[in-house]
């Protein structure tokens, strides 16, 4: 079985879960060819990501002229298919709000993908994210008839389901994957009822081999929290400085380490200064997988004040590391975080509720925090073992190829 994996940007620090999924599939004997439109090579810090870069075929690296000529040649060889795909791209672009040119570029990329899938004798293409990778996969299907599927993560796909043509993408796919029950419910909203049986849940997974030992909590003189992820509006890090200021005013000693980077960094730094809590924050930038595990080991709990999510990998990794989680009561979070059992759930966008959870965690005895971490570890290892989840995906691929 030869599977093509398709992403927009790969590898990159925020999608290590895809790399983990691919590796688990390969360990089960499946051949995976990586396709991506592009990759930000300079942003890669993890040695495994650097190796993955060398194994990934970047479609845009073929160059605009070569891609255009390939699309022209494809259209001359298969005029009816090309006309049908071009019409679909045009309609999708119109629905996305004056994005026709962008979707015609997707068509050119799809023609390249269709040619390479045929040359490499790939049996099936799987796209990660229901945004432009799924659009390119759909157009490739229109051009060549090759089967495709895609994984929807959220929240971006659910922000613009009509503009992203989720209904059409599900309708033409062999199957679609959601990473949580919440995600599946959102796909149910936009897919035709007759296509609901195509929609399966395959969780993003953690590698149990990376979390084999129990790591003791730090000595608790202050509550040490860690936040891991892109500095983006949906992640809610802008709320942290105010929440920390409120918690400290109530007498709680709190320190937050922010692991990651992104477009919101200047605003986050400004908020830290505005609330006069610079001594309570450390910003590390992106870290490799070992660095992330070390940051979790140095923390008592993960804090995730997100406004929108799918089902965050960092929650899984924190639980696997035996750490309690403070998260917002949104999307897939409640499917893993059980309030008062392995962490605390708070309303999104409420700095006082977030501060109260910090205060509660600060006042919680170390033994109780450790027990909450153990409960989370057991839950995530039972539900998110990457080898089990890759096995589910492999069976879906087998079924799709047999259609």
From TrEMBL:
SUPFAM superfamilies: UDP-Glycosyltransferase/glycogen phosphorylase. CDD domains: GT4_PimA-like (cd03801). Residues 16-209 form the Glycosyltransferase subfamily 4-like N-terminal domain. It comes from the Bacteria. PANTHER family: SULFOQUINOVOSYL TRANSFERASE SQD2, TEICHURONIC ACID BIOSYNTHESIS GLYCOSYLTRANSFERASE TUAC-RELATED. This is Glycosyltransferase family 4 protein. It comes from Paracoccus onchidii.
């Amino acid at each position: 079985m030869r599977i093509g994996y398709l992403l927009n940007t790969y590898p990159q620090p925020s999608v290590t879960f895809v790399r983990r999924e691919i590796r688990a599939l390969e360990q089960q004997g499946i051949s995976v060819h990586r396709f991506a439109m592009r990759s930000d090579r300079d942003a890669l810090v993890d040695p495994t990501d650097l190796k993955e870069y060398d194994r990934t075929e970047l479609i845009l690296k073929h160059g605009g002229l070569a891609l255009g000529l390939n699309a022209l040649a494809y259209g001359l060889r298969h005029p009816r298919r090309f006309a049908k795909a071009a019409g679909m791209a045009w309609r999708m672009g119109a629905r996305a709000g004056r994005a026709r040119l962008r979707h015609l570029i997707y068509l050119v990329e799809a023609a390249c993908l269709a040619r390479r899938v045929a040359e490499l004798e790939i049996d099936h293409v799987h796209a990660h994210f229901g945004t432009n990778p799924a659009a390119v996969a759909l157009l490739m299907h229109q051009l060549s008839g090759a089967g495709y599927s895609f994984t929807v993560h959220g929240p971006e796909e659910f922000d613009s389901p009509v503009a992203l043509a989720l209904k059409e993408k599900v309708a033409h796919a062999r199957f679609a994957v959601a990473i949580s029950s919440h995600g599946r419910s959102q796909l149910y909203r936009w897919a035709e009822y007759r296509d609901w049986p195509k929609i399966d849940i395959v969780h993003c997974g953690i590698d149990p081999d990376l979390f084999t030992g129990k790591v003791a909590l730090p000595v608790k003189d202050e509550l040490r929290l860690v936040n891991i992820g892109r500095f983006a509006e949906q992640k809610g890090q802008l709320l942290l400085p105010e929440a920390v200021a409120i918690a400290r005013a109530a007498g709680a000693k709190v320190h937050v380490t922010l692991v990651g980077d992104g477009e919101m960094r200047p605003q986050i730094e400004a908020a830290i200064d505005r609330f006069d809590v610079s001594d309570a924050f450390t910003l590390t930038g992106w870290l490799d997988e070992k660095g992330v595990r070390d940051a979790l080991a140095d923390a008592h709990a993960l804090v995730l004040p997100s406004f929108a999510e799918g089902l965050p990998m960092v929650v899984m990794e924190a639980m696997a590391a035996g750490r309690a989680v403070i998260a917002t009561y949104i999307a897939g979070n409640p499917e893993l975080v059980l309030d008062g059992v392995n962490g605390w759930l708070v309303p999104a966008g409420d700095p006082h509720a977030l501060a109260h959870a910090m205060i509660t965690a600060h006042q919680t005895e170390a033994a109780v925090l450790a027990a909450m971490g153990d409960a989370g570890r057991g839950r995530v290892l039972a539900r998110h073992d990457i080898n089990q989840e890759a096995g589910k995906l492999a069976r879906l691929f087998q079924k799709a190829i047999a259609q």
